[in-house]
Records
---
Amino acid sequence: TVSVADGAHKLEVRTTTDKETRLFGMRMVRDFPGVTLSALGITGARAKFLDKQDDAHWATVLTGAKPDLVVLAFGTNEVGDGRMAFDENGQLSKDPMGDYERNLDKVMEQVEKACPNASYMLVGPPDMASNDASQGNAKPMVGIYASHQMNVAKKRGWAFWHQQKAMGGPGSMWSWVQAGMGNSDMIHPTGSGGNALGQMQYLAVMEGYENFKASKR
């Protein structure tokens, strides 16, 4: 840990060897009241990816952050996979959604072991739309994955934020696209859409926090 006076600084990192050096990140914070947000996301993330990482290293990264709240958000890419899942032997799974729940449960358990004093929250996938009006422009797999995520969250005692419901339910992304809040791929929100979702999630967290405080009075 290096402490410096508050203000602008230049940070230079040099290696002391000619050998390959791997830098897993750094954390820079100021000694002021507020919230520090550490994003540990990976492109194309799926819950099963975290289950395959080095458990000890993953625990070190989480522990070092000393989080008060750990939020896991998955589902978008899994929805794209549909019901395709493979077992530990690389064979097509006979119970894909059951395997999904078991993988997710393992990842959530790893988080709990690394950060036993934190609070935990699982965020479901956003709604995704299709051009099929006969299905209400909805993608049924979004709700299916959210349902299985809720099962695991309930089992482990995690808070769960149903992002699809917050957007307006199945097919709501179609309306978001028309309003400029969803991208033309009908999967990802635009900047303004992302800001709206962030605000909704913040309000949901704070509502839960206030209810928790009220229950302790």
Note: The mean pLDDT is 89.
---
Amino acid sequence: MVSDAETIKAKISELAETELQTKQLVTKINKLTSDLDRKQEDISSLNKDLDWYKSKFEVLKKEVGDEERKKVSEDKISNKNSDQTDKEYGTLESYVGV
């Protein structure tokens, strides 16, 4: 009978240790889950920031493209006017006699 009591006592002690380990694991899992949730929120926030920067980049790229097209167009007009002036009055080189 004594050995049965000791066996039962050992089993109870073993179950108590297992219960403690289980509680510790649950605590770790909850902490990791919480950390994961925070990381996912951080990633979501970074993705929103990235989307904002992408849209801003597209706007700036369009503005630069518009400016470049305007400049090229102005250069073409300027060159066309210069060519017309050269036809009418001659070039500066021909006027100076170079």
Note: The helical segments are 2-89, 92-96.
---
Amino acid sequence: MRIEEEGDRNIDSAAVMVNAPHFFKVILNNCLQDGKLGIPRKFTRKYGQGLSNTAFLKLLSGAEWNVELTESDGEVWLQKGWPKVAKYYSVKQGHFLVF
């Protein structure tokens, strides 16, 4: 029997994330001002078939946020709900986020 340390869960979760579809964003000021975060086209072309209107952002801590997706002219954004997430986690220009 193995007793899990607190850090073990984070390592296991991070290992799973490496194999899951993911993308990164460097936060620019317009993302915060406009209240939306663009999802890279390469990601949406590869994984965007049948996207729902809602994305569930699950953090390693176990927290989960619902954010509505907006699509227009081949662009997809995290929009309604994104400003709350950014404010709660004090997301600032220059931060590097992995989704």
Note: The beta strands are 24-26, 37-39, 54-58, 64-72, 75-78, 96-98.
---
Amino acid sequence: MTTDAEARQATPVTTKLHRLTVNLTEKAHQALADTAKLTGRSKTDTCNRALIVNAWVEKVIHDGGNIYVEERPGEVQKVKIL
């Protein structure tokens, strides 16, 4: 697993930006606000990061891999994305 600093260093800085208008459900809007507050990132940075993480998750699943989470020490669970 990489640290936030390593992830920032590995992410190329780009000057080309793309504007996107989206309609969020109330649940997605609340998740965005909660995540931005929790991490201290802007909503734009939070959305960018979420899209990058989602692309990685989809690739892992597409390639036949699995993703696991450990919420408490020793309690590892396989994440199933439907």
Note: Strands lie at 67-72, 75-79.
